[in-house]
Each structure stands twice: as structure tokens, then as C-alpha cells.
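I'll show a record.
***
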Amino acid sequence: MVQQALPRQDTILGLTTALTAIAGRVALPEPVAKAAQQVLAVRLNLDAGRPGGAEVRAAIQQSGVFQEALLAGGRGTAAAGDLKSALLALRQGLAGWLGNQAPVAQVSGVQPPLRGQLPRARAGEAITQDLPDDPMDLAKHLMERSEAALSRLRLHQNASLPDPNPLRQEAQWSMDLPVVIGGQQHILHMQIQRDAEKDGERSGDRGWQVRFAINLAERGEAGAQISLRGKNTGVLIWAEHAETANMLASAVEDLRTDLSAVGLVPGAIVVRTGPPAEQPSQPVGQAGHIVDARR
């Protein structure tokens, strides 16, 4: 699966941008139109106001990474509403529309997701192409983008598999969340990690770490690393451009207030220019819950 997915994977941004552009302007077969609506419905609209924890959790659960786990757990309804199911339905509908057309071309895009790799949002992800006018050519374009998005999602699932090393039992999930900001579509590259369980340690005391990155055109690439153990929280925020980093630094006290308002205990909150360096895999039970201000 990995060998097949690597040369054709790309973010879902090309697909959602194309689907948005043709919405209401191109007559699509009913199965394609229904699946397209489901794909677009999975996007997290940040223009609707700051999302709460429930909205973020729902977006993560619908990312497609957990489809098989939901099915295995008897949650077929939840699985049917996630992104992977929507992409599979879209691909099936497009295949029926295309019939015996020639195979679609492979799309090779951004760097593939790898286990433990720092999430990055490289420039150029939002570049779009002119859509073809011919219906069959348009269907081929949508099929290429659907295959690319599915391939990347499968690579995220592969990067989220348990570590085969029995001494490392921490959990880790990798995903792309399509979001809408300022009316524009973007990808939030996210990684969630939970420390391995130690002998005698309460489940609630296990450390969590969330890392994400996004690229906002004029603001450049930015991201964060959020660590949590119990109620103690540390945050490292970074931005590609110094101007953006300075803007984020001016809001640190507001962030500290917001963290306290939801019952967390803010620790170090660091803002820096440039992404943190890639770190080697950490020993079991030591997934950094303390932010190093030097990084």
C-alpha cells in the first residue's frame, strides 16, 4: 500500500478547491454530487468563530484515519460520515461516470507523512489549476485528486500504526484537517501523541502532546507544540516570518488567560521564529511534556 501511495499522494486541498469551484455551476451525476457534498462538509469552518473542544474532536474523528477502527467497534454510522468513506464514495461515483476511460494520471505532491515527523505546511500547497471545460476531462481531474487524497490518507493511517517496538507503547495519530479561514481553504497538518503508560501511573497522569502546522499565504507557515500532563500545560508557538512571530508573541498573555479559564495550569509559553528542529524518537514515557525554550 505504501509503495503504491507514495508516488500519487497529495493533500486534499486540490480536490476541495476544485469541488468548491464547480459547486452550482457544473451538473454532476447524483452519486458524485452527493459524495462531493460529504467531502466538503468535513471541513472545519474557522470563520464561524473559535471552535470548542467538541468541534475539534469531531473534526479529528471524521479525518478518515479512524475509519476501520470505527467499523471494527460497531460504529458504522460514524464511519460512514468520515472523510475516508466520503472519498471512497466519490471515487466510486466518478468511476461510474467515467466508464471505460483511460486510467487517470498519478499526482505527486507534498512530502508524505511519516511517523514522528514534525508536521509542516510547505508553501505552494494552495496552488490551484484551471479546471477543464469538458465534462469527461473534469471527471478525470476530480478522480486524480480523489486518488491523491486517498493515498495521502492511507499514508497517515500507516504513520499512525502502533510502534512495533514492544518497549515503546505510546499512541500516536497523524492527520490532515481541511479548514476554512478567511473564506480560503487550508490544511491543518496535525499530530497527536500520548505517552506510554508507566507502572503504577494513573491514566489521567499520562502526558499528551499535540503538534500542528498551517500555511496562511501572507502570514507564512506557522505552528505550535502543545504539551499536557494532568492540568499542567506548556506551549511552543513558531512562525516562519518574524513579523508573524511578533504578532503571536503579543497575544501570549491572552492565551495564558484562556488556558486558565478552561481549568488548565499554564507553564512556559514560548514564541519563536522558525520551526523547531526535528527531534530523534524519545525513550518510552518521555514524550516531551516540558517545553524547552532553547529549541
Q: What stands out?
A: Residues 2-159 form one domain.
